[in-house]
Design goal:
Elements (H helix, E strand, L loop, with lengths): L1 H27 L5 E4 L15 E11 L3 E6 L10 E6 L3 E2 L2 H6 L3 H10 L3 H14 L7 H14 L8 H12 L4 H29 L5 H25 L3 H4 L2 H8 L2 H12 L4 H28 L6 H16 L9 H10 L7 H27 L7 H11 L7
Antiparallel strand pairs: 1-2, 1-5, 2-3, 3-4
Length: about 400
């Protein structure tokens, strides 16, 4: 009874978080074309106000390189006649439909194509982490489950739904379930490290042109150094012995916690495989960030490429927190804070960029749905064959 109540409460919390995320997005969207007149800026009738104003506008056209013009939508279309208003280009806030209607088809398709290599690379990364720990899994089966995991990422809050499914399938018929599950955990960890490395590289390279990107890069560098220090102490510097984890395990009898710790420590003996997995992760994150960046550029965002590449990993990290579905609301709010700037990016362009990026992932995840419908999703056929032969009375070779 208590477990059922907990599940019900969890569903309610998830639903509320999804509603909150969608509410944030809907609130941030500019639905109609508008002009945001800054404080002390001149309005349609030449009037000046000390506060920021926003007016609806239609039939927007460029006037030279820095000005635009449009027809003001009056509060009462009968009482007032339409009037043409010229304004600074940076004041213009296109509505969401206008934003999408001006998207570049070439850039949209480019962003979708960039993701072609992501899933084979993710499969290679996970395959390396399994093989080095003695999990003999075929690469093509791994790729299939990666696609299926991508599909399930759209079923749970955050972006961990696929990891949960992958962990269940890889451990379902494994002789070492803890090691199998830890391969999924390490796969996620190396992915997050790839995000940090990308943010650090892009941010440091933008040191002279964007302070926000550079700040993010510095924080990413600091996080990488801390992780490297702690990992070195744990795997190389004897931190495990200093913490007396071996003695603690012997006192409590090992158990599940002991097996988890042993599985984690086991990767210390496979540094080449771990380093290769991190390298693959960097390439994966570059492709993902480029896809999102291309989606933003297709909508007319005018930031430098390096700026978006430095900030997009931060948005991805925010989405990794299992709060809302696909990070909806969290990514948009953070993206608006970090990227929205007059003449560079509007909130609608940032929201549109993230919607298109999720659309890219959804399109590719449909391959996972198709593969899931085929059935027989398991990664240890060799164990199944042994069990089947035993049931049929067939002796297996020594």
């Amino acid at each position: 009874m208590q477990m059922q109540m907990s599940r019900t409460l969890l569903r309610i919390i998830r639903l509320l978080l999804v509603i909150a995320g969608v509410t944030v997005v809907l609130w941030a969207i500019t639905w109609h074309d508008a002009v945001r007149i800054p404080a002390n800026g001149s309005g349609p009738a030449g009037n000046v106000s000390e506060t920021v104003r926003s007016i609806r506008i239609t039939d927007v056209k460029p006037v030279g390189s820095v000005l635009m013009s449009g027809v003001v939508v009056p509060p009462d279309a009968i009482a007032q006649s339409p009037q043409v208003f010229q304004f600074d280009k940076e004041w213009y806030r296109p509505g969401i439909l206008t934003t999408f209607s001006k998207a570049s088809p070439v850039l949209l398709l480019t962003g979708l194509i960039l993701l072609i290599g992501v899933y084979p690379l993710q499969a290679t990364r996970w395959w390396l982490l399994m093989r080095c720990r003695g999990l003999n899994v075929g690469w093509f089966r791994t790729l299939r489950l990666v696609f299926i995991g991508a599909f399930f990422n759209f079923c749970l809050p955050g972006t961990e739904g696929g990891d949960i499914v992958k962990a269940w399938y890889v451990s379902r018929k494994s002789e070492d379930r803890v090691t199998a599950v830890m391969s999924v955990v390490f796969d996620r960890v190396t992915g997050l490290l790839g995000l940090l490395i990308l943010a650090a590289l892009a941010g440091v390279l933008m040191a002279t042109s964007d302070s926000i990107a550079f700040t993010i890069g510095l924080w990413a560098c600091l996080a990488i150094m801390v992780i490297a220090l702690l990992s070195g102490l744990y795997f190389i510097g004897g931190l495990r012995s200093w913490l007396r984890l071996d003695r603690l395990q012997s006192m409590i009898g090992g158990g599940l916690l002991g097996r988890i710790e042993n599985a984690v420590h086991g990767y210390g003996s496979h540094r080449v495989s771990v380093a290769a997995a991190i390298t693959v992760s960097v390439v994966v994150q570059i492709l993902l960030a480029l896809a999102a960046t291309t989606a933003g550029l297709s909508l007319g965002m005018d930031h430098d490429l390096g700026v978006i590449l430095a900030i997009v990993p931060v948005l991805f990290l925010a989405a990794a927190i299992p709060m809302t579905w696909q990070g909806v609301g969290v990514m948009e709010a953070l993206g608006i804070v970090l990227l929205a700037a007059p003449g560079l990016a509007t909130p609608n362009q940032i929201i549109g960029m993230l919607i298109i990026y999720r659309g890219y992932e959804l399109i590719w995840s449909l391959f996972g749905a198709a593969l899931l419908m085929k059935g027989d999703v398991q990664l240890h056929p060799e164990r199944d064959n042994v069990l089947l032969q035993a049931e049929n009375g067939v002796e297996t070779p020594e």
